[in-house]
Amino acid sequence: MHQGRPEAVIPARDDVWSTGLSEAHNVNVGPVERALSIVSGAMLSLSGLRRGSVPRLLAGGTLVYRGITGSCPFYRAIESRSRISLLKGVQIEESVTVNKPIHQVYLLWRRLENLPRFMSHIESVTPVGENRSHWVAKLTVPFRLEWDAEIVDDEENKKLSWRSLSGSSIEHTGTVFFHAAPAGRGTEIKVILTYTPPGGSAGAAVAVLLHRITKNEIRTDLRGFKAVAETGEKPTGAIRWSDRAPQRLAETEQQRARANS
Amino acid sequence: MRAVCWNGKREIRVENIPDPEIINLRYAIVKVELTAICGSDLHLYNGCIPTMKTGDVLGHEFLGEVVAVGSGVDSLRPGDRVAVPFPIACGNCYYCEHELFSLCDNSNPNGWITENLYGQPSGGLFGYSHMLGGYAGGQAEYVRVPYADIGPVKIPQELSAEKALFLTDIFPTGYQAAESCDIRPGDAVAVWGCGPVGQFAIQSAFLLGAERVIAIDRIPERLEMARSHSSAIALNYQNVDIAEALREITGGRGPDCCIDAVGLEAHGLGVAGWYDSTKHKLWLESDRPTALRQAIYACRKGGVVSIPGVYGGLVDKFPIGAAFAKGLTLRLGQTHVQKYARALLARIEAGEIDPSFVVTHRLPLEEAPTGYAIFNNKEDGCIKVVLKP
């Protein structure tokens, strides 16, 4: 769009945090759009004058202003929000109650290789030795992002924490708290995930991943975890294998074998 | 297979679509013997329910033969004849464990949509929009049934399909509406809407011990069915002032229980009717609560207003003051069919009720578009359409 969408390479931190109001920095509307903005704004203002319509006058005036200055406050609001949050990375906190005993819920998380079954941004987690695992993010070609992580805190039935090893292409931490819900209502879990671009600048793949991970998505993922823990499967509206949302082939095959065995 | 597909507002087509497959362990595939068009399908037909997509298979009332089961289903085998409840329920979550099956936590893969709308995700339903799961429905030759170990109710071969079919929705829905009223000896129950759910609410109210049931509608044949089949007192709201008539009938007290079996597409009369239909057309109000307003206004003090009629969004001029002043109890929500179906099957087998009395039209599946049109327009005395694949 203008000045590149967040998927593109993100400038270093200083650049984004600077509040310099130089004209070059302020312009966020392309030349063609500026011209169109002036023309349409002028027409709207004229019709507003003729009809005595204040809203038309105001809207027209705004369009003319952003055409002449090349500075659009709406674009700026959208851009600055997404950029700053991308560079800070994302931290998401979500809770869900699972109608299963605490130990069962803990064990399902403890085997981190289960994560791809419900975390839609994770392609695979492969154990590599004691407490270490290799993670691959689910991104479309040509983007690719993988890292190694280790479990740094493991209190049975209470807390599980892991973090990416230093030097990874993305800094990732995850913590899950387990808590027995009152009166035998299962297990409350609270999940805190952070993804941070290392060193304050992010490559395209990191930007794509950060852009994907939203609170809504993690909440939906946790509902998927809950469904797997409670019912043994994730619900789907699909009626045929071929309709399923893009899915790991190996898992589909495994599932097909299990379903038909 | 052939299936009844939604193609937009009042645009229903019978199309060829691929047969369903066993995807999850707890699936079964059912070959449909008989299916029906529900009054709530008309909300989809009229475009009142968002998140429908072209090609979606409609229908949530169906009965048929199990032809395949996943490895996780022990309770069914091919050849079983089953009626399938319209709410999809996992049987494992808190709500299912408490027999609140239609509130299932796990059955709706698109729960985030209703979570944003309603604060919590709702369960999945067959053939009822993507916000309720995007599950292909039962107006088809075959249906994929999730959690098949929980929902389907086995139906004896000797019982006719028409008698058993309505265990899937409208009979339990009418029954739950009446049961929610906590009917006591001597109670008068007023029922707004004499469509199929209203008819079963009337029957159920009598089954549960109501003294009198007052049926309210404007369609003569529906009122006639309520009168002749269930001995209800029938009131046509186009001819009488309902509030006044209900006072008269109940010695000035008002009905002990009021059931709104109409829901969001109520037809209104006079200024209020015009107000609601105008706001609805301007998208300022999603639901038209004419019947609900009357029910709250008419109900006696301390009474129960039970709402099996479907509501989806926001209503305007909701008489909360009347409900508060009279200390009313409101009971509402989708039906927990799995909770009632087996007990109601026993009542059918015992001859206490024959639910097939509501059927007025029997059509082949291929004529579903005609079925929808006459049911929607209430033409040709249409009260309930069943479809045979």
Polypeptide structure, described:
Chain A is α+β, with helices and mostly antiparallel strands. Chain A contains nine helices and seven strands. Chain A has helices at 13-17, 23-26, 31-51, 54-69, 73-88, 102-110, 204-212, 215-231, 249-260; strands at 90-98, 122-127, 132-137, 146-155, 159-164, 171-180, 187-196. Chain A has a seven-stranded antiparallel beta sheet with strand order 1-7-6-5-4-3-2. Residues 1-25 and 245-250 of chain A have low confidence and may be disordered. Chain B is α/β, with parallel strands linked by helices and 389 residues long. Chain B is built from 13 helices and 18 strands. In chain B, the strands form four sheets. In chain B, strands 3, 5, 6, 9, 10, 17 and 18 form a seven-stranded mixed beta sheet that branches. In chain B, strand 12 (212-217), helix 7 and strand 13 form a beta-alpha-beta unit. The longest helix of chain B is centred in the last third of the chain and has 13 residues, at 337-349. The A-B interface holds A 97, 99, 185-186, 216, 219-220, 223, 226-227, 230-241, 244, 255, 258-261 and B 18-27, 70-72, 88, 90-94, 97, 105-112, 115, 121, 124, 130, 133-136, 144, 146-147.
